[in-house]
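Q: Predict the assembly, please.
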Amino acid sequence: MCGIICYVGNQKARAILMEGLKRLEYRGYDSAGLAVQDGDHIDYCRTVGKIVELERAVGEMEINGTCGIAHTRWATHGEPSVENAHPHTDTKKEVFVIHNGIIENFHLLKKKLEKSGVSFRSQTDTEVLAHLIAMNFNGDLNEAVRKTMSQVEGTFGIAVIHRRLPGQVVV
Ligand code: GLU
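A: Predicted assembly structure:
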């Protein structure tokens, strides 16, 4: 069972997200990751294994943003690996999404996206969400997420940020 934590506020997001992930450790997971937005720049990091691994990796990064999303993954589609850990992004790395659950129709959606020229970087079902949200984005992230949700079948809790919309998390 995965865990999701998001933060938008005045404090630096990294420490708050890491603390949240630690509190979610009891749920069980195989990998973890976070994305923090700082203006039109997004820092992100993903690791396999315990939260302490992610903590070590993000400890070496300069992360100053005050808005972000973080995830502990329990793999359902694709082995536990850095590439399959969340957040997942679209081709241009504008959309960052974390997801709890399963996209039942992801095979069909993935095939369609690949036909239209999208290259996938992971084996997860989740990655289709990032590409679809990017395609459906027209300046309004809520609307893009709403439209995407009408295209997918399955179970999902998600959190999304967009490089062009600092300080906004859609859940
Ligand atoms: N189905 C997604 C994956 O395999 C999400 C799993 C989860 O809920 O952690 O990456």
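The longest strand covers residues 95-103. The two ends are 18 Å apart (CA to CA).
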